[in-house]
Amino acid sequence: xxxxxxxxxxxxxxxxxxxxxxxxxxxxxxxxxxxxxxxxxxxxxxxxxxxxxxxxxxxxxxxxxxxxxxxxxxxxxxxxxxxxxxxxxxxxxxxxxxxxxxxxxxxxxxxxxxxxxxxxxxxxxxxxxxxxxxxxxxxxxxxxxxxxxxxxxxxxxxxxxxxxxxxxxxxxxxxxxxxxxxxxxxxxxxxxxxxxxxxxxxxxxxxxxxxxxxxxxxxxxxxxxxxxxxxxxxxxxxxxxxxxxxxxxxxxxxxxxxxxxxxxxxxxxxxxxxxxxxxxxxxxxxxxxxxxxxxxxxxxxxxxxxxxxxxxxxxxxxxxxxxxxxxxxxxxxxxxxxxxxxxxxxxxxxxxxxxxxxxxxxxxxxxxxxxxxxxxxxxxxxxxxxxxxxxxxxxxxxxxxxxxxxxxxxxxxxxxxxxxxxxxxxxxxxxxxxxxxxxxxxxxxxxxxxxxxxxxxxxxxxxxxxxxxxxxxxxxxxxxxxxxxxxxxxxxxxxxxxxxxxxxxxxxxxxxxxxxxxxxxxxxxxxxxxxxxxxxxxxxxxxxxxxxxxxxxxxxxxxxxxxxxxxxxxxxxxxxxxxxxxxxxxxxxxxxxxxxxxxxxxxxxxxxxxxxxxxxxxxxxxxxxxxxxxxxxxxxxxxxxxxxxxxxxxxxxxxxxxxxxxxxxxxxxxxxxxxxxxxxxxxxxxxxxxxxxxxxxxxxxxxxxxxxxxxxxxxxxxxxxxxxxxxxxxxxx
Length: 733
Fold this sequence. Notes:
The chain has 733 residues and is α+β, with helices and mostly antiparallel strands. It has 6 domains: 3-197, Hypothetical protein af1432 (Orthogonal Bundle), CATH 1.10.3210; 211-341, Beta Polymerase, domain 2 (2-Layer Sandwich); 394-469, Ubiquitin-like (UB roll), CATH 3.10.20; 478-585, no CATH class; 589-647, no CATH class; 655-730, Alpha-Beta Plaits (2-Layer Sandwich). 51% of the residues lie in helices and 16% in strands. Strands 1-2-5-4-3 form a 5-stranded mixed beta sheet. Strands 12-14-13-15 form a 4-stranded mixed beta sheet, covered by helices on one side. A 4-stranded antiparallel beta sheet has the order 18-19-17-20. Strand 4 (313-318) and strand 5 form a beta hairpin. The longest helix has 32 residues, at 471-502. It starts with a helix and ends with a strand.
């Protein structure tokens, strides 16, 4: 047996000593995974010259320290097998089962993500995306163990590689460890990263701390003895630990507060670990009797835990020589959570909770995760709960060039398109997610790769406002529609004024207020009368119904008469008596109208209905059916605001209208109705049910899309033939 084999065998033997919390069957499965990984990595060596298998064994050892289950230990041993050794997921499933294979596959996918920018926002997005992409929280824990061992053994690497990996660790993995409450891992990764990023500063501070440690040893020992004596007199059993600030945290404090090393006072502190929760508050009383507390320096993280599950009492006291020293007080259960964070779940999952266990004995957040894991054993649900707490409102998706884009939960490809550029959003016609075409209203998930398909002539759809989630997308769509509405209102206003002026026997003057000669003077006089700055503004007001076209036309006719122009008999007769809509200038509807022309929701007109147009104040043109009660009341009150409208012979789209359908109650009625509507070659876009569903009959309100009145009659006939349908009628206010 070679020395390399001896080293690997010895390290695996050390691992087995850590697995005493597993049963014999699980240990046998772990050993099988070790043999598989050892064979897969045969002939591979690390930069230090050690056999590669020593790295997976070390990672598995760190996971064993956290008491992770057998599947996680096996995945840790094989975490590089798929990436480096050509092992397939199918092979792992057949040999070790799907759960373990999924863990290895998840680790492989995370390894493929490359962090390539120093921007802080990208780092935040990247680490959250790592969390979001991991279907099982154990994947993140194994990944952190992998990074920790790599950081511990980086001396053999080139200097520039060490600095790059250390920076990535500080930006990405340190915050994840902190967020998951893995304080030991968090502190060590932070310290190692600082050591490689700023080696000179680390060395200077390390020497200074070592020197200070010697100078203050007597003081630390004195405080320890006084504290232990005080708790002994109070008949309390506690553990007292001295703790020292990390070199990285000392450096950060010096930079943030512009201090010299000598000015950093709280380099050391103490931790008091009690048996029970209530003992924490008793211990606080003992300490405050022993030393004077500093006002404003007390924090109760037991009553209000930190988001990562951390619980402790923090108090700063004045020590015997007059300097400040911080004490942290926590119970044994809190100490496990504080040091191991989410990994503490696996350490205690074998033990049942006492009946009188209170949520206050542990962080509510962590406890809820433990409960879910105990009750469901569902890793997907477990991580979903974790993700909601970690980043409740965000998903992280990628462009085809791997740029990370953060979006709120529920965001769609349209939100993504506007996040890239407003021009991309305005011209968006379709989208692909992970290479597959999807509807634009599809909700995106973290890790999705989004590709937007654009077309030069495309424009935003008002319907997008019903499903977009980002304020940017909503404001850009509204801005575009507002501009489009102004253009359409301008065109409609010019047409209405021209039509009204033709009834006076006159033709609309050319040009605008900037024109020279008679036309310019006429427009200037009209805009001054109307209180508008420009002709376009006046025409928009007419199109939106803020000004009545007939009144403006009469005033313009007066100005034209004053300038010597007389009505033309032919124009007058055409304007008043011609039935030809195009000549008369009536508004013709084909379905392509924008926001300035609305079909009244009270009567939902469709092509073939007799209609009229109402110029609401600032609402644009609202089209009602002649039989509409709302329209008739408006006509009685304000006749001047009504204009002639007609349908185009070739509408460009389908139109929605509402049917009231009375049905007998019974199983499958909805299915029968939907099938009948489908046979009539139309779609139900919305359905409502009355409150009397529990009786013998029920009322349905169906919003259906039809081509015209003939198509609507066909839909109603088809519905009436349905056995469960008693009555069908079209709704109109």
